Amino acid sequence: MPASGGIATKPKYSFLDDYSEGAHPDLLRALVASNDTQEAGYGRDTYSQDARELIRQQVGCPEAGVFFVPSGTSANAISIASCLRPHEAVIAASSGHIVTRETGAIEAGGHKIISVVPQNGKLTPASITKAIDDNWHFPHMAKPRLVYISNATEVGTIYTKAELTALKQLCEMNGLLLFIDGARMGAAMTSKKNDMTLNDVLQLSDIFWIGGTKNGALLGEAVVVKDPKHAEDFEFFVKQQGSLLAKGRIMGTQFTELFREGLFFNLARTANEAALALSSAILQGGYELLAETETNQVFAILPLELANFLQQSFNFYIWEKFDQDRVVVRLLTTWATQPAQLEKFSRIVVTWGTAAAEV
């Protein structure tokens, strides 16, 4: 019996996010194995140095600066602050994480966000051009200087190489920097629709980061700064924002394990495959997807009654109301999503859809 004296309830399986589990066992073993060694602090440890070299090999740039920070919000806030002067602004999709989910962290750092409407979660050259054209009255308006995108996007879609090339070319023509939020970079790189490598991402951006938290790590993101001159002072921004951890070895050890033999990509691929299984069941049940499932995020349009029934056994977000009788739900899968839970969810959706069709 619970301490309150109430009736115990069976815990629900979670599709709320992709960081509900702890860390992949290989990372935990690496942390335990390294635990008794003495190491330098603040990212000067041997594990962080090894991780930097492995990431530099992956991105194909020996001169790139690689910096470990504990969270996605810190990665975004620190990266943007390092790029901009006080009067300069960020162009971002209105659905972007820095707009909707970071409590005004960018604005708190003194930088305006210019929001534009995305297409399928993505920015386009036309939307960026409009933002530039609408913010011209200097010095009375903040000056656009950086374009923020995420790959994968907030609706799980990814940028193709052609799309990213077009954005980069437009940015260069207009003196803008291109920054990529890579919280789900692993999912993007292992998507069946992906046609890029991490070297392509490096070449087609100015600064980006690789997410560990949402791909098997306890915590940690790796910010990659292409320009060595920009990288020289980046660590000062990390320190000022309280993100230069004394025990930086915790992140270095994990990223070394993630990139040593391809585990980073294997975990992301597993999460993507689980999401495809969910979306397949949703379509089999006769329901629609808000966006095609390209990574580990599934956005499905379901009857409200079905969504409520599913929530008796599963946790997930009802993202928004679609119409009078239907809602959009968001389902997130991970490297550790249990096949039995996928089957249970799928069975309910398919049989519910079949019963509805018979009626």
From TrEMBL:
It holds the Pfam family Beta_elim_lyase. Residues 38-301 form the Aromatic amino acid beta-eliminating lyase/threonine aldolase domain. InterPro entries: ArAA_b-elim_lyase/Thr_aldolase, PyrdxlP-dep_Trfase, PyrdxlP-dep_Trfase_major, PyrdxlP-dep_Trfase_small. One of its GO terms (biological process) is amino acid metabolic process. GO terms for molecular function: lyase activity. It comes from the Eukaryota. The keyword Lyase applies. Its cofactor is pyridoxal 5'-phosphate. Keywords: Lyase, Pyridoxal phosphate. Belongs to the threonine aldolase family. This is Putative Beta-eliminating lyase. It comes from [Torrubiella] hemipterigena.
